[in-house]
Every structure is written in structure tokens, then in C-alpha cells.
Design goal:
347 residues; alpha/beta; 434 Repressor (Amino-terminal Domain); Rossmann fold; six-stranded parallel sheet; six-stranded mixed sheet
């Protein structure tokens, strides 16, 4: 019997099997020096005794922790939850553990998470920065340390790091052209902060599509803020109260679009009749919206997979690795908003 609260050590397993602690350690790591039968016996006893590896101790004795730290701004978010699941799956396939932290769009918390992950001696970091991150000092410090970092979706303007982004410009351009082809002339957008790459690229795609079709850009119909539902709600209310409600709105994110839906419902406005909308990002919740939204689909699962694969490539070839920059395509998925009759999905 093992006493409650007693921490099982390698020596406890070794004593039970009358072998050395080194043998037990190698067996648990699947070392080729150890026979299959010994590995089997060690794992059986380890399970019986309730042995749990001491990762911190292993980190001190090994050059690799086989852990990757992940920092995302939100977790209750369809895009990021899909990215995270993909990251976990690919890391597991490659024998790595993921240590997940959530910044909650707070740059100070983001820095604290980075410091914690560094103290755990993770082999690399995957980061999507907060919507408020403007100080890149800590990332430059990590660069000097030589620790691999891959930024995804929201990146910083330093080329020394791996980056994986969606083609936000093309997605915004495509969505805006869809609205123009539906006959809309007065277009607006609830966009993201311009110090973020996704905010800049999505706004530029919107504006360039208008210019291509020789349509005016109405500054009063462009509101730039954060990426959450409350920001969408407030921005729409501001447009409505000022008398600048456009015929079409491009929403920078799915949560922002949800805020628009909530505001429109409170005001008694009907989407696709009183105004139309397309947003960036997908969600399983979209099928319950009325009308179901046309969206710019982002390959979230592919982004998560690419982030892990790129980080592992960086870890394994640290001495000669050159940063890589990957851009994944976006596509328009038609729903019941901003569609011509011929394009409407059949019920």
C-alpha cells in the first residue's frame, strides 16, 4: 500500500523490481537499451503504484522538456478553440505536451504567462498576441535567448519570428465585392484596432475593394475598436444613433457580428432587409442565427497544425533555422445574408 500524499519515485519502482533507477528511467522513456519485457514490467508497476513523472526534475536533467507553451487571447471563442484543439492533436502526435495559458486580451497577463512558461523551460512558444499588445520588448528578449516562437493570427511586426496568418486582406476584399455585387453602394465596417495586423489588413481589403469599384469610402461608416461582442454592439448603436447606418456592414470578427445582431434586435431592425452583413470567422452558433450569416471562413485547424509543425521544425533545427512566414487562404461561405437570389442556399 502507498500512503496517501506519498510521492512515488523511480527508486520505489526500482526497489519493487530489484533493478536500478536508471533502468526504470530508461524503460519509461522507451530507451532501446531496455528489453521489451522489462519495459512492460516497469510500466505495470508504475501504474500500480500511481507513479507520475516529475516534469520539472526531468527538465533540469534534460536539454528538452518536450513541452510547448501556448498563449491565446481567448478560449471561449470558436476560432481559438479550434486552433487549440488542432495544436493539442499535432503536439501529441509528435510526443509533446502543451501548456496552455489565456491572456484575456490583457498585455500584462500575457507577459506574466510568458515568464511562467519560460520558467518551466518549454522548448518553444506559440503566441497570438492580445488586441492591446504594443510593447514588444519581451519578445526581443526571447529572440536573444534563442527560444523558438511562432506567432499565429495576431502577429507582431518583427521578421525574426515564425508567423502564420490568414489572408485577411483577400478575405475582406472578397466579402466587400460580394456586397457590391449584391447592389449595395453605401458600405461600412466595424473593424479592429489598427495596431493589429488583422485590423489593418481587413480594413485595407475593404477600402481597396471600394476603390476598385469606384465607390466612396465613408469615414463615418468605419468604426475601429476591439474584437469582442460588446465592441460590435456599441459600434452598431453609435452608427445607428448618428444616422450613419450603412446598407452593408463588414464585421471584423464573429463576436463583433453577434454584437451587431443583438443591437439590431433591440432596435427592431431586420438583418438582410434593413441592412446586410458579412463577418470574419465561423462558429457552430451561426446555424442558430436568423438569418444565418455569410462568413469569411478562416482555416483554424490548419493554422493550429502549421503552428506546431513550424515550431517543432524550429526546435529540431535551431542552429540553422531561418524564420518562415506562412499565409493561409480564406474563403467566402454563403449563408442567408448578403446573397443574390440565385446564390441563396437551398433549404
Amino acid at each position: 500500500m502507498v500512503k496517501k500524499g506519498f510521492q512515488i519515485k523511480l527508486s520505489d519502482i526500482a526497489k519493487r523490481l530489484n533493478v536500478s533507477s536508471v533502468t526504470v528511467s530508461k524503460a519509461l522513456r522507451g530507451h532501446p537499451d531496455i528489453s521489451a519485457e522489462t519495459v512492460r514490467k516497469v510500466k505495470v508497476v508504475a501504474k500500480e503504484l500511481g507513479y507520475v513523472p516529475n516534469f520539472m526534475a526531468r527538465n533540469l536533467s534534460s536539454k528538452s522538456s518536450r513541452m510547448i507553451g501556448v498563449i491565446v487571447p481567448k478560449i471561449a471563442h470558436f476560432f481559438f478553440s479550434t486552433v487549440i484543439e488542432s495544436i493539442y492533436d499535432v503536439a501529441f502526435e509528435n510526443g509533446y505536451e502543451i501548456v496552455l495559458t489565456v491572456s484575456q486580451e490583457n498585455p500584462e497577463r500575457e507577459i506574466e504567462h510568458i515568464q511562467t512558461l519560460l520558467s518551466m523551460r518549454v522548448d518553444g512558444l506559440i503566441i497570438s498576441v492580445t488586441e492591446n499588445t504594443i510593447d514588444y520588448t519581451i519578445f526581443d528578449t526571447i529572440r536573444k535567448m534563442g527560444l523558438p516562437i511562432t506567432f499565429l493570427d495576431r502577429i507582431i511586426p518583427l521578421k525574426e519570428f515564425n508567423t502564420i496568418v490568414n489572408d485577411d486582406y483577400a478575405g475582406a476584399f472578397m466579402a466587400t465585392e460580394q456586397a457590391i455585387n449584391c447592389g449595395y453602394k453605401k458600405l461600412g465596417t466595424i473593424g479592429g484596432f489598427q495596431h493589429t495586423n488583422i485590423g489593418r489588413d481587413r480594413l485595407k481589403g475593404f477600402k481597396d475593394a471600394l476603390k476598385k469599384h469606384k465607390l466612396p469610402v465613408y469615414p463615418e461608416r468605419i468604426i475601429l475598436s476591439g474584437f469582442g461582442e460588446q465592441e460590435g454592439y456599441k459600434a452598431f448603436m453609435k452608427m445607428y444613433s448618428s444616422g450613419n447606418l450603412p446598407e452593408f456592414l463588414l464585421a471584423v470578427s464573429f463576436p463583433v457580428a453577434l454584437g451587431v445582431y443583438r443591437a439590431a434586435n433591440e432596435l427592431g431592425l431586420q438583418i438582410a432587409r434593413d441592412f446586410d452583413i458579412i463577418c470574419f470567422g465561423n462558429s457552430g452558433f451561426n446555424q442558430f442565427l436568423s438569418p444565418k450569416m455569410t462568413i469569411i471562413d478562416q482555416p483554424a485547424a490548419a493554422m493550429g497544425r502549421a503552428a506546431v509543425e513550424l515550431t517543432l521544425e524550429n526546435i529540431r533545427n535551431a542552429e540553422f533555422f531561418q524564420p518562415k512566414h506562412i499565409k493561409l487562404p480564406t474563403k467566402l461561405l454563403l449563408g442567408d445574408t448578403c446573397v443574390r437570389k440565385a446564390e441563396r442556399p437551398k433549404k
